[in-house]
Amino acid sequence: MSGEQIREAIQKTSKALGEQPGKAHVKNPPAIAALTDGLKCRVTGPAGELAQTDMPAGVGGSASAPTPGWLMRAALAACEATCIGMRAATRGISLEALEVTVSSESDNRGMLGLDDTVSAGLQGMRVLVRISAPGTSARELEELVRWACAHSPVGCADLGTTQVDVQVDEGRSPGA
């Protein structure tokens, strides 16, 4: 879609949700991960979406696919880039280039349970945005990026403070 088509779609949806805010709250489609071989997972969605993960050999995987942590960074990078693109379109800014890099560190002692004082979570998340748009000042681009990142659904998902309801269903085969 062109920037104009994106802007029109966002304006139409924004108008409809402004008139009927109850329709803004939606249930997101589930992602279902099944352990398939060793530490390989096949992740599927209701419309045929597919992703696969694996772990490095050092923790028992075969390194045949991205790790779940990499997919999380990829999801954040894609979501930030998408929101920046959407905001640019609504502002009439034509992006010449946009690249979002997400990096982090982790301490494997947390995931392996070697030290209960060490978090298993990704730490030091960094988002680097390389962006250019003819006729747009550095200040305008900075504001555009900061606004978009503050409105990114993946970027706003703080699992450290978000309540995650964990349920365990024992004794049943997956899909039964």
Please report the total strand number as a whole number. 5
What is the number of helical segments per DSSP (H or I, 4+ residues)?
4
Estimated helix fraction? 25-40%
Q: N-to-C SSE series?
A: HEEEHEHEH
Q: Which descriptor suits the 3D outline?
A: globular
Structural class: alpha+beta
The average pLDDT value, as a whole number, equals: 90
Rg calc? 20 Å
Oligomeric state of the chains in view? single chain
Q: Give the low-pLDDT segments.
A: none
Largest sheet data: 3 strands, antiparallel
Distance from N terminus to C terminus (CA atoms, Å) equals: 41 Å
Q: Report the β-strand fraction as a percent range.
A: 15-25%
Taking strands numbered 1, 2, ... along the chain, how are they ordered across the largest sheet?
1-2-3
List descriptors.
globular; alpha+beta; three-stranded antiparallel beta sheet; two-stranded antiparallel sheet; 19% strand
Notes on the protein architecture:
The chain has helices at 3-19, 68-90, 108-112, 138-150, and strands at residues 32-37, 40-44, 50-53, 97-105, 123-132. It has 176 residues and is an alpha+beta fold. It contains 4 helices and 5 strands; from the N terminus they run αβββαβαβα. A 3-stranded antiparallel β-sheet has the order 1-2-3, with no helix packed on it. The protein has a two-stranded antiparallel sheet with strand order 4-5. The model has no long low-confidence stretch (mean pLDDT 90). The radius of gyration is 20 Å and the shape is globular. The termini are far apart. Helix 1 (3-19) packs across helix 2 (68-90) and helix 2 (68-90) packs across helix 4 (138-150).
